[in-house]
Design brief:
Keywords: Cell outer membrane, Membrane, Signal. With 521 residues, this protein is mainly alpha-helical. The protein contains 18 helices and 6 strands.
Amino acid sequence: MKIIYLLIPCSLLMASCGKLLETTPTDFLTTENYYKTEEQLNYALHGVYDRLGASELYGDKISWTYNSSTDESYQRSMPSVGVTVNSYEASSSDINNFWRVCYEGIERANVLLANIDRPVMPEKNRDVIRGEALFLRAYYYFILVSNFGDVPMKLEPTEASAPMQFPRTPSAEVYAKIIEDMTTAESLLQEQTITKLGFSGRISKTAIQAVLARVNLYMAGYPLKDESKYEDALNWAKKVVESGEHMLNPSYEQVFINYAQDKYDVKESLWEIEFFGNSLDTYRETGRIGNNIGVLCQDVELGQCFASVNATIKLYNLYEEGDHRRDWNCAPFVFTGRTNAVKTPVTDNWTKNIGKWRREYETLTPKHGNNTPQNFAIIRYSDVLLMLAEAENHVHGGPTAVAYDALNQVRRRAYGKPLDVPDACDAPAGMGQAGFLKFIQDERSRELCVEAVRRYDLIRWGIYLSTMKEFAEYIMSNAPEKLLKSAIAAQNLEEKHLLFPIPLREMSVNSALKGHQNPGW
């Protein structure tokens, strides 16, 4: 099943600016003449989901623009300015658009929630829509607070005539509201299991639980450092595991082939952003997953990819022999030829493309030169297992059998081994709390590289600056001369980059933000 998202017209989000005719218009949508049926509520809900797939978020840039400035990847063109290399200002269009799209999603959710009680419909169905809208609004705020810190927290629709006076809300309060709304959503969606849904593009009970585990881990780390949240993260992760609805796909590679072929593996993939079509058909809900980030290919029929992102030597070296993830995530080949392209081996470990999303597996034809139907996972079951292991280690002052089991399931899958049989690839026994955490930090990179979590992980662990400094030193001492510039993101990194700046445009129109920019900006 594929959700075809409806873009709710702007007329639903703001009042008319003026009277163009003496007669009252009746042929366009407003909040007054919409939201009258259950079907219209569902269309509006699809509009709330829609902004997550925008190119400014999971449709393109969240995977390689906002998160390339880590030790996992670097831009192949090695630019000297931009978000990817930590050289930007509050006037950056990327920063402004990132902020804008999140608030568009929030506004759509606010409008829906303000009108949700209007139609006559079964209350059970209304509760499901309410739960999804509350969760999605909270998720947009989670994106904002983890990137910008204190942000304006709007919980009502914007009045067109109201002045732009929305002060920043402290991060702790924003997080508290996120937890409140997501917890409410989880209680409202008790019967919306992923097994019943049969696909991962819509929020299920266990997807909410998994995201709540992630949110609590972020709260436990920098900057809030509320260590009590480790136990909450552990409890939410355990709910996912104990639901019995999820397990790892035996093949790491197949996980991403499924995303390319629009096949739903609801046991592995808890929540994914859906894309559809080839920009040549009726429904144009494509993204660029596999086009900007993937294996270099100029053959449009096979699936053109600009391969804008390479794996770092650090990522490549994190893998040991026998780990299937290495040659999937760090592609050992490129495609050569504009037609009938063939695989050409790449033996230089410093210049391997990120190969996680591969267009050769797409089944929808004809393929578009830029746009793709590949889905993007927000959270997978392997992430839940690694979060459980991390939280279990912290709560108990060291790794328990439960923590080792969760970690080793991920590792055994990576080596093509049975998930429930001890193997030589298992994590070393006898590690202390600090050693186990370090192992988890590396394992998350091996498993989840370039899935838009590394930067946030490094920040919450409080090691972003030190890790990138060490990475830059290694590059400058060991890289071939032509690749020294791949250290530029690490060299440019300053403490101010722990948060993005509040967009200059927003500061200029929202008078309550003036004088309240993030430190260093």
